[in-house]
């Protein structure tokens, strides 16, 4: 069987050095590279080597004790954390690298939450124990307090820790009948269930402790993929190579051969090539089996989160909170430029590239300024496209605080569609949801599905700033079509007008992104921390105090706190610890200012209209939203409460 090991960490904890050493110790590479020498095996992109950080998740391949392993080295910088999250889904086990000098850092906590969310068995490697300032005991305590109380030193009373968590093991321990097989079986179950997290200490640069990690994984981690049943695989990465699209996936079950037909989102495709990668090198093969991490050609539309021969999974939690405008210095037509950017969007789906018709500019979603620098380099290197980006701005969203019925009618000459909707607020973070209460006597099933498709095919603009709508439940109540004059585009127009007409009647709410923060510093700084949070329009929980330090947690808007780590480091002389994690959207703290800055005019949006169009005497005419409800052709329905 094949086991996939993921390596994750806060930036500069030694993640890539650990991966390099592991590949060297297993003879997968002949020489060890170093980040500072710009010659590591998995950081193979010129930009990664120049910056000394991992930007792209890359995989290696090695064998150990007759078992095959895949190794995925993930980005540690927060700007590239979505790439890391996508890789988490295909890991059988994770190795979290924590520096024995710096301890648990901000991104470490983000990584940890993702691993727990996806229930990935985990081993912690406490790195840099040879460095000045390393404090193993203090960092282990910090790990147990901030990450998991079940984290224990592997080479220190490990059997005791296993016995404390399992009755069978405890009985054997008390009776003196403990043996290796019992320890292996019990610890395997505990680690799989995340009830036991081994901590192994070492120094990756010297090779100390690296093989201990591998031996621990080999003993206690059992792959779960199966060769039985039809072939299925999770798509976790898209790359382009010489204008050829490569789809990377992990096989979950069955066997796939070259020339086999597969299904993705209901469409059938033929696989034309299969590759097994090790760094930049690859081997073309005729088949892949469960457990393999592989690349394939022949899937022009598959995107990250799709499942081959299965149901897509795209519920990612790490999303951008910023957007930036792309300024292109080129004579190319805008469609050609968008095509290039769409390729990058396929590789990094969070970019959300779109043409802003209102401002005649290209905008995209980003995690931070480092990502923009990387995008500038890639566009120049791959497409010889010279671009600059404006300063990133906050990504706002809009929702409703009350409910309303919405009516849309679209009837220019030889067209006809009518849609009645009901909208109401959803719990925060739920997004847009849909239900159908329309009777088949009033509208065909095909037309109902078409209306639902139009609701989800794009982000819809709110009335306040034109920001995307979210956290709203939309119910289809009824509708009408004409057997001769209705086509699909008519229902798009009627649906959008009904949605917009409902928004005109509700209390609209502007939402902004929030951080969940954790600040730890000398107790003398507590007053400053609390004051700064209040000035940033945040809230905090009751402080946790020791004799020397204060821990402050809470929520704060991203807009007011993006630059705070620099301020915090300055007044704590670099001795404080700060963790900022995206914590969803909530009511904007300065709605009026944001609306004014946006300059959005709801009646001048070229993509949306609240009015309806009716037809009389062979000619279409417009009816404003506040008069449209009384002119609808369908009988009005009331919503059946959920």
From TrEMBL:
UniProt keyword list: Antibiotic resistance, Elongation factor, GTP-binding, Nucleotide-binding, Protein biosynthesis
GO molecular function annotation: GTP binding; GTPase activity; translation elongation factor activity
Taxonomic superkingdom: Bacteria
Pfam family, one: EFG_C
All residue ranges annotated as the Tr-type G domain in the record: 1-226
One GO-annotated biological process of the protein: response to antibiotic
Keyword Protein biosynthesis among UniProt keywords: yes
PANTHER family associated with the record: RIBOSOME-RELEASING FACTOR 2, MITOCHONDRIAL, TRANSLATION ELONGATION FACTOR G-RELATED
Protein name per its UniProtKB record: Elongation factor G
Organism of derivation: Caryophanon tenue
Phylogenetic lineage: Bacteria, Bacillati, Bacillota, Bacilli, Bacillales
């Amino acid at each position: 069987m094949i086991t996939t090991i993921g390596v994750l960490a806060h930036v500069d904890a030694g993640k890539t050095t650990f991966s390099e050493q592991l590949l060297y110790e297993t003879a997968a590479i002949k020489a060890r590279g170093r980040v500072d020498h710009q010659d590591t095996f998995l950081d193979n992109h010129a930009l990664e080597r120049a910056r000394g950080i991992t930007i792209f998740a890359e995989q290696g391949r090695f064998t150990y004790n007759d078992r095959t392993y895949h190794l995925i080295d993930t980005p540690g910088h927060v700007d590239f954390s979505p790439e890391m999250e996508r890789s988490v889904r295909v890991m059988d086990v994770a190795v979290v690298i924590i520096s024995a000098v710096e301890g648990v850092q901000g991104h470490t906590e983000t990584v940890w939450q993702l691993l727990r969310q996806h229930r990935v068995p985990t081993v912690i490697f406490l790195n840099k124990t040879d460095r000045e300032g390393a404090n193993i005991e203090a960092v282990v305590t910090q790990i147990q307090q901030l990450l998991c109380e079940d984290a224990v030193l592997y080479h220190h009373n490990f059997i005791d820790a296993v016995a404390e968590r399992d009755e069978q093991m405890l009985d054997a321990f008390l009776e003196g009948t403990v043996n290796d097989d019992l320890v292996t079986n019990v610890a395997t179950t505990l680690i799989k269930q995340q009830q036991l997290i081994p901590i192994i200490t070492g120094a990756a640069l010297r090779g100390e402790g690296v093989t201990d990690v591998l031996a621990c994984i080999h003993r206690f981690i059992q792959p779960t993929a199966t060769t039985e049943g039809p072939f299925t695989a999770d798509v976790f990465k898209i790359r382009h190579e010489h204008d050829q699209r490569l789809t990377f996936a992990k096989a979950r079950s069955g066997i796939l051969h070259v020339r086999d037909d597969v299904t993705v989102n209901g469409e059938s495709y033929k696989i034309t090539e299969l590759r097994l990668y090790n760094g930049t090198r690859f081997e073309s093969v005729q088949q892949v089996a469960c457990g393999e991490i592989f690349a394939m050609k022949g899937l022009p539309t598959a995107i990250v989160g799709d499942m081959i021969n299965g149901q897509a999974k795209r519920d990612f939690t790490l999303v951008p909170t910023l957007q930036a405008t792309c300024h292109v210095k080129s004579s190319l037509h805008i469609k050609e430029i968008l095509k290039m950017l769409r390729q990058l969007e396929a590789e990094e789906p969070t970019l959300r590239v779109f043409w802003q018709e209102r401002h005649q500019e290209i905008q995209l979603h980003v995690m931070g300024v480092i990502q923009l620098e990387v995008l500038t380099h890639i566009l120049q290197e791959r497409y010889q496209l010279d671009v600059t980006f404006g300063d990133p701005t906050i990504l706002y969203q809009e929702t409703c605080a009350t409910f309303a019925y919405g009516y849309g009618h679209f009837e220019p000459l030889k067209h006809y569609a009518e849609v009645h909707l009901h909208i109401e607020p959803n719990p925060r973070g739920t997004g847009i949801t849909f239900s159908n209460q329309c009777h088949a006597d009033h509208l065909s099933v095909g037309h109902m599905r078409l209306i639902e498709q139009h609701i989800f095919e794009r982000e819809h603009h709110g009335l306040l700033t034109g920001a995307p709508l979210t956290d709203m439940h939309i119910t289809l109540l009824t509708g009408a079509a004409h057997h001769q004059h209705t086509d699909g585009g008519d229902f798009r127009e009627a649906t959008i007008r009904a949605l917009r007409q409902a928004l005109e009647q509700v209390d609209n709410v502007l939402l902004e992104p929030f951080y969940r923060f954790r600040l730890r510093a000398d107790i003398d700084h507590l007053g400053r921390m609390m004051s700064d949070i209040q000035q940033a329009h945040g809230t905090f929980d009751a402080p946790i105090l020791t004799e020397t330090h204060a821990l402050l947690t809470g929520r704060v808007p991203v807009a007011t706190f993006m630059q705070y780590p620099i301020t915090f480091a300055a007044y704590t002389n670099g001795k404080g610890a700060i963790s900022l994690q995206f914590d969803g959207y909530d009511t904007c703290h300065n709605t009026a200012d944001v609306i004014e800055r946006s300059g959005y005019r709801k009646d001048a949006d070229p993509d949306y209209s609240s009015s309806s169009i009716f037809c009389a005497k062979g000619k279409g005419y417009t009816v404003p939203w506040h008069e449209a409800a009384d002119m609808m052709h369908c009988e009005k329905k009331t919503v059946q409460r959920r």
